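Complex record, two chains
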Amino acid sequence: MKKQFEEHHIVEYLYGEMSPADKKDFEEAMTQNPELENEVKAIQQVRETIGEMPEKEVVPPEIPYARLAFKDQKATQGWIKPLLAVAASIALLLVAGMYAEIHVRINDAGWYVGFGNPAPNDYVAKSEVENIVKEALQKQQASFSQQLTQTRDSVQRIYAALGSYEGVNAGSINREIPAKAVSENELRQQMASMQSTNRELLQNYLSAVNDQQQAYLQDALTQFSDYLQQQREEDLLMIQRNLIDLKAYQDAQKQETNQVLADIMQTVNRQE
Amino acid sequence: MTKLLRDIALGHSQSIIEKARNGDDKAFTKLVGLWFKKIYNFCLKYFGDHDMAMETTQKTFIALYQNLTEIRDTERLKFWLYKVARNYCYEEGRKQKKTGLLSIFQNQEVEQKPDSYFHPERKLQTMEKEQWVSSLLLTLPDEQRTVIIMKEYEDMKFREIAEVLDISENTVKSRLYYGLKSLRKQIEQSGYAYKEEV
């Protein structure tokens, strides 16, 4: 190779980036310098050998580029995802429960979840029973005391009416009239009255508890209904987003097809 | 006609860049569709491996999404994409060298056969030509390989390569020349006979 042509002239010539004047000089130099000509030919052959690598077709993967912009925002709202997961799990459990006859019972002792027919017992807490009994006893005692007083008064009035016990004062009556002095019929009436009162009290109490439980259950069902509605809206939103992404992907595919067609036409033109 | 189509595509690309910069995600998806194949093939030739090329290409476009404001026009986009893809290729190549994965390809000798056994047709039968060329490229240093891929397969001008790699045009030509000479040596050592094939 002659000194005036260096390696960069060879690549310029081979890749067609040499000025017409330089190209003419270079081709003249090749005719006079076989070594230079052979060098050019050898490198051209390398190009022809490695040039047989057509571009591979590839489909761009669907990457959520847009979500990257919200990365920081998502980081601050990291609690939403686990919360949604928990909510979705509960919803799934409840849907499954519809078919498996799931039963949920809530009371002071805690939550009970079961499948199939529920156990027939209505659980009442120990403290509640104690309160009921205590309250009933207190009322019974008060009622009994009142009735006993009334009985004494009526006996006193009877003795006073008969007038056969003169000289007997009210204090001695109080001391000397034992419970046995009350007739059996009166006692039975008093006991029946007390039982009736107790039954009424217990019924009122159970009715109040039942109303409270119904109100609670209704509230829980309302909340669950709201949650299902919210979940449905989110699902619809997600479906809408996916449809938008799908449309975008189809557009990209169309663009890719145009590009492929352009490449094919370019190749055909080159061959012509 | 082809040139017209290319011009239309580039003009469209310009409008897509504008839309994408204004936050139009659909436009960005179109932009990816236009350039993904070019960048993927550049990375594929650099690594000779689909998975690594795919990963590097995806990283490049994620970076593009995050830096769209830097892109003003189609030519700038082209330079930017190749520059970032090249950087990711170098980075990934260094990682793979550390783990020893890429060295399996880079240090391998190009297959040699005894003269009596060798014949171009048989070579084509026993070894995929593309894989063979790919293995040849992997024997080159990163800088020479990059220049050869850009010039030979991406059809870039010396000026464009110099701008992407941030080096002088003469350095580009020098790397290209010595890269091709190195390939020639590898091909000769492998017993490949040009004239027989021609």
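Note: The domain at 1-107 of chain B is CATH 1.10.1740.10 (Rna Polymerase Sigma Factor; Chain: A).
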